Amino acid sequence: MFGFKKKPRSSIKTDSYTVVYDRKKNFWSLEYKGVEFTYAQASIELPKVEILELYLSWVSSHKDYIDKNVRNMCKGWGNVFIDPTKWHLALIDVESLDRVSAMILGDDTWGDMGYDIWLENGVIKNEGFGD
């Protein structure tokens, strides 16, 4: 407004993804295969595709467990239908090379509900449901 221009967002483009720095939230993010990956560090080493694939495989290796827990989460809401079959991996927050958290979201029937898992070397260490 009145001559003030927004600074362009810092970004780095690779063959597989573009990494963008969010100044307001102070983190880097990228989208790979429809999943957002976030990095809270002020500086990052660009992740290799193999590492992104590893994190995706960590989550997918727990698909049956996630299915079961999402079904349980969706029960008990009275006459409100929450579809447990419509979940998807929305975000992976990379805490360190061997520690990530994953956000599982659903369709519109879920509202703002979600299921989160925290993994270390591919093993679920913690989980939680909520909004």
Write the layout of secondary structure elements.
Blueprint: E1 11-13, E2 18-22, E3 27-32, E4 35-39, H1 49-60, H2 63-74, E5 88-96, E6 99-105, E7 114-120, E8 123-130
Parallel strand pairs: 4-5
Antiparallel strand pairs: 1-2, 2-3, 3-4, 5-6, 6-7, 7-8
Q: How much beta, percentage-wise?
A: 35-45%
Q: Treating each run of at least 4 consecutive H or I residues as one helix, how many helices?
A: 2
The order of strands across the largest sheet is: 1-2-3-4-5-6-7-8
The helix fraction, in percent, is: 10-25%
Shape type: globular
Mean of residue pLDDT values: 88
Radius of gyration: 17 Å
Give a concise summary:
The protein is an alpha+beta fold and 131 residues long.
Characterize the structure shown.
The chain is of the alpha+beta class and 131 residues long. It starts with 10 loop residues before the first strand and ends with a strand. The relative contact order is 0.13. The protein has two helices and eight strands; from the N terminus they run ββββααββββ.
Features:
131 residues; alpha+beta; eight-stranded mixed sheet; 38% strand
